[in-house]
Amino acid sequence: MKISASFYLLILVCLTACQQQPEQPKLTTKATKPNIIIFYADDMGFGDLAIQNPQSKIPTPNLDQLAREGLLMTDAHSSSGVCTPSRYALLSGRYHWRDFNDIVHAMGESVFKENQVTLPRILKNNGYHTAAIGKWHLGWNWESIRNKDFTEKIKAKHGKKDVEIWPAQAYDWDKPIPNGPLSIGFDSYFGDGTINFPPYTWIENDKVTEAPTITLEHPKKEFALEGNWELRPGPAVKGWDFYKVLPTVTSSAVSFIENQEKAEKPFFLYLPFPSPHAPIIPNKAFRGKSEAGPYGDFVYQTDDAIGQVLEALKSIDADENTIVIFTSDNGSERYAYDRIKNYDHDSSRPFRGVKRDIYEGGHHVPFIVKWPNKIKPGTKSTQLFSQIDLLNTLASITNSELPKGFQHDSFNFSDAWLTDATEPVRTTIVHNTWASKYAIRKGDWLYINNKDGYHTRIPKWFEEGKRFATAKDTVQLFNLKDDIGQTTNLASQFPKKVKELATALHKEQKTETFKN
Fold first, then answer.
1. Could you read off the pLDDT of 250-260 as tens digits, one per residue?
2. How many other β-carbons are positioned within 10 Å of the β-carbon of residue 76?
3. CA–CA distance, 274 with 278 (Å, rounded to integer)
4. Taking a C-beta distance cutoff of 8 angstroms, is the pair 358, 433 a contact?
5. Which of 115, 189, 276, 307 is a Cys-bridge partner for 298, taking CB atoms 3.0 to 4.6 Å apart?
6. Do the beta carbons of residue 76 and residue 387 sit within 8 Å?
7. Nearest to 364 by CA among 132, 104, 48
8. Three-class SS of residue 207?
9. Strand partners, 429
10. What is the pTM of this model?
11. Helix (H, G, I), strand (E, B), or coil: what is residue 242?
12. In angstroms, how far is the first alpha carbon of the chain from the final one?
């Protein structure tokens, strides 16, 4: 039987196709789970970000581009108006005020409980390599490395005050320092702890890279470029250069990203910047880059740092499978008032108040999230969101297991991020900085249990030029839909709403969620 030429041709095509069939790649842990980066600015106000404040005098090209490529959440909040509580809340998924209100002071203890459930621990248990680079400010057990043979503290100057501190020689710097980042689930840490708090040296994992030998009180014959140095006295290495802190943190983060190119695990990088927190000290290359003075230049340098890390991410072809988040720990420092007068730049725009205040300017912060091919680019969300919601949301997205019985205050926003879902995820949020003042938000309404929402002193010139039509009530009530600037207190006009929200706040304060 003769076989036709066309049959031979068919057989040849089939054999060729079989030979060229590519081998199906095996799904690895790294391929199936997204990397995660959290950029955490320090004291950056809502109005500093150019893409959400057209009147901003600060260029933020990398953050603007990040927002264009991702989701901009315009009603996002830090847990507190100061840094330590906000950081604790973000990493624990728990309102800070359930445990404390104040910051960790110089050489202070850790705020975390032993074996506490945290975001890095959850992700680490799910196969992530977890790293923290930058500002920590959540405490260490410094007392454990103190040489008890030293029984007397020394006197030092903190501003105009005389304080007593342990000198550098009172510590055994060769010992590992317990209860730092590694104790809550981070595989690695590199940073200076806190830029304006001792010890002034670099810390890698749980040990200093160089032992402090002197007591630093204030850089001699130098002034911060804006505001005050805000430095606490304490142990320091000789020749410590504050101007190298942000560049070193940035280069360390870039190196970390580049080293992940051939890593088998996905990574979680928590990158809390030391900027634009005081001391406001932009490097020379960035001075004059904004129209908002040295602070604006420092914000610009922070934006540039973010750009460098994102470029490193692209260089290892990891940007497509990385969730990138940017936000700030609270509103801008009190020097923001002078910038309004000197540069016509309002870091809090359109809000009232600044860092520490219970008004929106203290905790209503920028928030951007990008995940290519997952989160629709160039979108905005008016969903009420808190940084404590990151724990539940990221755990859900990464299919990370939450411990059985783990109680938290965190909501899951994964559907709001990844779909067109518009149903409100969170309808209520509690705001707090110091123990005496609380606010609760419910829908458009916001109630403050005090006649004054300020903690930061307002300059007289600003107070005289910006009078608010506040009634003489013992509490405050605002409708943020109609009055986002919180100019008019409506408490006397809506007593039922005041009672409703006061009751809701009291109920939330009584609810205990710490069972882990």
1. 999 999 999 99
2. 23
3. 8
4. yes
5. 276
6. yes
7. 48
8. strand
9. 441
10. 0.92
11. helix
12. 80
